[in-house]
Amino acid sequence: MGLKKFKEILGNELGRIDSLGISKRNERVIEGFWEDGAIIGGRRYVVFNSNDYLGLRLNKKIISAEEEGTKKYGAGPGAVRFISGTTEVHKNLELAIAKFHGREDAILFSSAFSANLSVLHSLIKGQSVDSLVSSNTLVISDELNHRSIIEGIRVSGISKLQKEVFSHMNYDDLERIIRENKGKFRRVIIVTDGIFSMLGEAQDIKKIKTIAERYDDEFEEGILVVVDDAHRVGCFGKTGRGCEEFFGARADIIIGTLGKAFGADGGYVTGDKIFIDYFRESAASYVYSNPISGGNASAGLEALRIISEEGVKILKKLNENIKIFKEGIVSNGLKLASDSNHAIQPILIGDPEKTKKIVSLLFDDGFLVTGINYPIVPKGCDEIRVQISAAHKKEDIENFVDSCERHMREIQMGIK
Ligand SMILES: Cc1ncc(COP(=O)(O)O)c(C=O)c1O
Fold first, then answer.
1. 110 lines ligand 1 (CB under 6 A)
2. Is the pTM above the cut of 0.90?
3. Which of 114, 197, 285, 340 is catalytic?
4. Residue 168 annotated in active site
5. Which of 10, 32, 363, 400 is most buried by a 10 A CB count?
């Protein structure tokens, strides 16, 4: 019999996914990048669907730092850190991240996804049966949190009673859940995205912290606020410090990525040294998985240096570009799906077929964007997710908005 039956089931499942029009595996193949453009089939496309918000991915200093790091430390890490040792550049990068966020220490992971999986597991539950860290935790998560947070809670294997979901960005609901669970748990962990990546909405960390502080004494081990600020670190707040800078509040633990605004690769967690030391002992994807390479760490370090020294200037350019885009959308009679002030700017289309059509017409015009449909966004809220970068030229943004407007108009008139 072999695997015939199982392979048949997998084939049917792929067919089911394809028939729903939600398959992801036929990714677009990019041959290279030229300035802010991607080369596909020999043609240049302006990229409006990248998390490279500051345009640092192609920064010459970062690339050359990566090359130097690779020459010095090799192309791969060799082994996990506790076996093979930690290179100087990984240590320096961790210290630079901690300093950037005004924290005692930081720890690197291969990605923010991997950080979320391990960190949530470690905080929710001790890693072994004889761990002194009990699993007597209530985890409260925003209903639209990123998949890596959902999976982090899932892998911790806690019971249904230990998980609560608060309505998206609804602080009264969050408070209600905490109030109703007073005295039932030793500690509470509130976990949230900083920016919700489909609509660019910003979670109000100050409101969450205020609620956490109000009820902290009701739980023996207190209330911990964990913020995954992957889309904001580097590119939000006056100097790129993300949600904390914007809202003037401090999370207990920040999760970030070097793979979006920093233009490099890898994930990180920063906070008090006691948390970071505990993660170095308990976070499975840190202890038992390779770190980023020395080349990647060198690139991350250079990106941090650039953002620390020139961030304000680059952020000014990004914010000017966001303004040009938003004004263009509004003056052309198009609608934004949220009032985001982040580089993520969703254009509301409201219909899955129209969204698909416009994305394809924009591709023909030389623009890369992503259509987002139900169930990722509510029914009737289908959108084109546009991601603005400091690297965009004014005329690219203006041409893009003109194309959007023309296609929308022609589709509405039934011409296309
Ligand atoms: C909120 C959030 N967290 C984590 C991640 C994953 O980041 P990384 O690519 O570093 O794993 C993403 C990716 O889009 C994200 O939106």
1. no
2. yes
3. 197
4. no
5. 400
Residue 263: C-alpha distances to residues 52, 90, 267 (Å): 6, 17, 12
Question: With contact defined as beta carbons under 8 Å apart, do 384 and 349 qualify?
Answer: yes
What structural domains does the chain harbor?
26-56+311-412 (3.90.1150.10), 79-292 (3.40.640.10)
Which tens digits make up the pLDDT trace of 86-123? Answer: 999 999 999 999 999 999 999 999 999 999 999 999 99
Q: What is the pLDDT of residue 310?
A: 94
For ligand 1, whether the C-beta of 148 sits within 6 Å is yes
Name residue, tokens 């956490």: 212
**Residues comprising the chain, all counted:** 416
Sheet holding 367-368, edge to edge: 32-34, 37-40, 43-47, 367-368
Helix (H/G/I), strand (E/B), else coil: 225: strand
pLDDT at residue number 369? 96
H/E element holding 106?
A: strand 105-109
Residue 165 Cα to ligand 1 middle (Å): 20
Q: Residue 146, SS3?
A: coil
| Both structure tokens of 411 | 């589709």
Query: Which residues of the chain fall below pLDDT 50?
Result: none
Tokens of 50: 């990248």
247-281 pLDDT, tens digit per residue, is 999 999 999 999 999 999 999 999 999 999 999 99
Check pocket membership of 144 for ligand 1, CB cut-off 6 A: no
- Residue 215 tokens read as 């009820």
Question: Which tens digits make up the pLDDT trace of 127-177?
Answer: 777 889 888 999 999 999 999 999 999 999 899 999 999 999 999 999 999
From the CB of 230, is ligand 1 less than 6 Å away? yes
Tokens of 17: 């996914």
Among candidate residues 203, 263, 228, the one with its CA nearest the CA of residue 118 = 228
